DNA sequence: GATGAATGAGCGTTCATTCAT
DNA sequence: TATGAATGAACGCTCATTCAT
C-alpha cells in the first residue's frame, strides 16, 4: 500500500510536465501566446507559477513543447487509411470519411491550425511542422489513392495539383469548424456527402453516348 | 504653390486617421493584437504615441476601426461576378477565376481571415462580420450559378451543400496562401485548373454509353 | 448698434479671464488641483484648451490666480461689522450672526478653506493668505469687541486667547458645512443660538449672592 | 539566533502590508491621493512598485485600506473619558483636556480630517466614517456629561445643540493645527484654558445679588 | 520539487504644454 | 485671439522571471 501510494505519488510527479502541457494548450488556445499568463497555466494544474519554471525554461519553450506535445500524436494520424479495402472509389470515399472523422474528433489538430495561423510569425517552425505532419501526408495519401484509381481504370487521368482540389473541402471544413464552430452549426453529413459527390462526379451533366 | 502647401497641410490632417489605420493593419498583422504596441503603430506613421489617442479612444477601438477600415471595401467584392456572360459552365469557370484573382490580389482580405482566426475569441464581432461579407456572399453567388446551370440543363441536380464543396478549394487556397505564402510557392495556375477541372468533371471515369 | 455689439463683444473678451477663473474654481473644487484638467476648465467656458493658455501661463498660475480671484472680495468681508450699534452684548450677538450669514452665503469662502487644507502643501502662500484675510481679522475684530465690552463693564476680564474660543464654534460650523453639507443637514438657527448662549453665559449655574 | 533570523524573515513578510500602509499614509498626506505615486510609496518601504501590487489590488484600494488602517484604532479613542471621577464640572474639564491631548498626540486623527476634506468627493465613505467614529462620539459624550451636570444641579439647563458649541473650539483647534501647525505655533495651554473658561462661565459679567 | 515574494522592464493611457494656422 | 493637432513625460498596472526558503 505504501508502494502503491509512492508509485502514485511518483507517477503524479512524472505527470506534472504533461499536466502543464495540457493546461498550457487550453490557455494558449483561449488567449493566444502573448496574452496567456504563465500563472494561469499553473493554477489550471493546481500548482504555482514557480513550478512551471521547474519543468520549462521559459514561456517560449513551454509553448514550443506544447506544440510538440499536441502534434506528436498526429504523426500517425493517417495510418489507418493504409488499411482500407475495396475499389479505389470505395477507398477514396472511406478515406474522405476518415479525414472528416479526424477533423471532428481531434480538437488538438484543429487548434494546431489556429496556432499555425496566429503564431506562425512568432514561431515559424510550427508552420513547417504542420505542413510536414498534416498537410503533406494528407495530400500524398490522396495522391497515391488517385494514382491507384487511375491505374485501375476507375479514375480518369487527372491534372497536376488535382489532389489539392480533392482534399481542399476537408481543409476548408476544418477552418469553418475552427471559425464558426461555437457560433454556427455545420452539417457534417451533408457537407461530406457533397464533397464526395463532387469529387466523384463533378458538376457537368453526363450525356450518355 | 501656396495652395499646394495648404492642401498638403489640410490633407495631411484629414489623412491621419487613415494613415494610422493602415499602419495599425500592418502592425496587427505582423504581431497580433496583444503584442502590437501602439507606439509602433505611431512611429510607422511618423508620429508619437499620443497622436494615435487623438484619433482613437484606445487600442481596442483602434483595432475594431482597423477591421472596419479593411473590411468595408470588401462589401462589393463579388459584384463583378454578376456581369459574367456565357454558358453556365463558362460563367462558373470565370467566377472561380475571379475568386482566385481576388484572393491573390487582396492581401487585406487574406489577413482579415487571419484576424478572424487569431482574434476571433477576443473580438467575436469580426467572426460574424467576415462570414456576412465574404463567406456567405461567396456561397450564395456560387449557389445561384449552380442553380442556373441546373435550370439550363448544363449541370446535374446537385445535393445540398454542394456549393460549399465547390467553393471550398478556393478557401483552402486562401489559407494556404496565408500560411505558406512566404515559405512555399503555390502554383496558382495549376491549382485553379485542378479546381475547375474537379468541379466540372469529378474524378470518376466516364464510360461512354 | 454696431457700437453696442462691438462693446458687447469687447466686453465678452474682457470677461474671458474672469469666466475662466470662475470655471477653474468650480473644477478645482470638484476634483482638486492635480485631478483637474485644463481642458475641462476650458470647455466649461465654451472655449478650447489653447485659449486658457492665452490668458494664463500654466495650470499652476491659473490656480493661484483663481485663489486670488475668489479671495480678493473677501478682504472687506467683515467691514460691515464695524458699523454695529448697541451695547457690547448686542453687538457681539449681531457680529456672531453676521459671521454665520457670511459662512452660509459665501460658498467661495468655504471652498477656499478646502483649498487651504487640500492644497496647502502644494501652495503654501494660500495658507498664509487665508490666515491673513479671514482668520486673523475675525479674531481681531472679536477681540476688540470683547475689549470694549470689558471696558464698558459688560464683560468680565477674559483670559488670553479667549477670542479664539469665542470664534471657534463658527469656524467649526464652517468645516461641518464643508464636510457634511450635502450629506447631513445642519440646523443653523439652533447652532447659532447655542453658540451665542454659550459665549454669553457659559455653562455653570449662577448662584445668586 | 536562527530563531531570530527566521522570525525576522517571517515577520518581515507579515509586516509588509502594514509597512506599505504606513508609507502610503505619509505619501498621501504629503501629496494627496492623485499626486501620490505608487512607486514613491514603494520606495519609502524599500521595495519596488510591483511589490505594492502583490498586496493591494490598485491605488484606490490601497488608499481605502490605508484609511481603514489609520481610522481603526480611533474607534476606542474616547473610551478613557468614561472613567473620569469628580464633579460634573471637574469631569467636563478633564474631558476637554483629554480631547486636546488626543488631538495633539494623534497625528493620524488630524490627517484623517484632511483626507475627509480633500478626498471626500472622491471617497465619500470616509466622510461618513469619520463622522461616525469621531465627531458623533465626541458630541454624544459631551452631551451626556452636560446632562449629568444638569441633573446634579451643577449646570444650567442648556439649549439644544449646546454640546456642539461646547465641543467646537476643540474641533477648530484641530483644524488650526492641521492648517498652521508647521507655520505658526499654537499655544495649547492658553487655548485650552480659554476654552474651559468660556464653557464654564461665559462672557457676561456676573452681578452679585 | 514547490512556493510565492519580489523584481523590473514594458506598455496603455493621460494630459499639460506648444505652436502653426 | 482662438484653435486643436501634436508632443512627450509621467504614471498605473501587468507579468515573465528569479531565488531564498
UniProtKB/TrEMBL annotation, chains A, B, C, D:
Known DNA-binding region: 37-56
Protein name: AcrR family transcriptional regulator
Taxonomic placement: Bacteria, Pseudomonadati, Pseudomonadota, Alphaproteobacteria, Hyphomicrobiales
Keyword entries, A-Z: DNA-binding, Membrane, Transcription, Transcription regulation, Transmembrane, Transmembrane helix
Gene3D superfamilies linked to this entry: Tetracycline Repressor, domain 2 (1.10.357.10)
Originating species: Rhizobium tropici
Ranges that cross the membrane: 161-180
The keyword Transcription regulation belongs to this UniProt entry's keyword annotation: yes
PROSITE patterns: HTH_TETR_2 (PS50977)
